[in-house]
Design a protein that fits this description.
- The protein is mainly alpha-helical.
- The protein folds into two domains: 72 residues, Winged helix-like DNA-binding domain superfamily/Winged helix DNA-binding domain (Arc Repressor Mutant, subunit A); 137 residues, Four Helix Bundle (Hemerythrin (Met), subunit A) (Up-down Bundle), CATH 1.20.120.
- The protein has a three-stranded antiparallel β-sheet.
- The longest helix has 25 residues.
- The N and C termini lie far apart (61 Å).
- 28% of the residues are buried.
Length: 265
Amino acid sequence: MQKMIKLEPRASGGPATAPASGAPARALADDHPIALLQTNSLPALVQCALERMILAGDLAAGERLREIGVAAMLGVSRGPVREAFRALEESGLVRLEKNRGVYVRQIPIDEADEIYELRAVLEGFIGRRVAQRVTPEIARELATRVDRMERTTARRDVDGYYQENLAFHDRLAQLAGNAKLLGVYRRLVNELNLFRHSTLAQFGTLPVSTREHREIVKRIVAGEAAAAGRALHDHVMASRERMHRSKAPAASAAPTRKNPSRKAR
């Protein structure tokens, strides 16, 4: 981890600083270091940078994160890195092992199964709640989000689709209007992210996933609470099956063995 990484918040923006006495008024750019620190704490910026790297796969599951190395990479002291590690542990992205260090979490397949099952239950509840609370504004927003997913599908942009997919489901969780659920949901999503990225990378998955999202939005917009809940539940369980296929050995690629009892002619 030698390369210096630019710190950026999850969402930029904030008030401009007051100019120095006698200096002309000049707003700082949103991504200016001072502007960033005005609206985000340094540990939060470090956390966001590490989170992006983990979710993008730049920091691999099981990889050890050393305070001194991360601090040098991000150009900060070790204190903010230490705080960021604690926040990332709470969000489920890293694990802290006493006297051993900090590691990017590595989820075994059986635990991933359990997380998918729990997430399916939560998504079913979310679908029902959002369908009961849907407004014309929400309907337009969800339709726009699926349109963006379809455009990334057309470009075969797995990374772009992955981000749109995360944003779509997180927005539904927000629209459910239950802060406690949102926190639990986000932790489960963080734990599954590396599995989900590899699942979406399978050939032919993006069009299928997009159709499933279109059906979810259709049911929500129609106010069909039970059907919306089922659509989201089934989508998550279908994602679990795709996850298993992505992890299964490529048996079909192995050459077919001839019947040894059959004599050559």
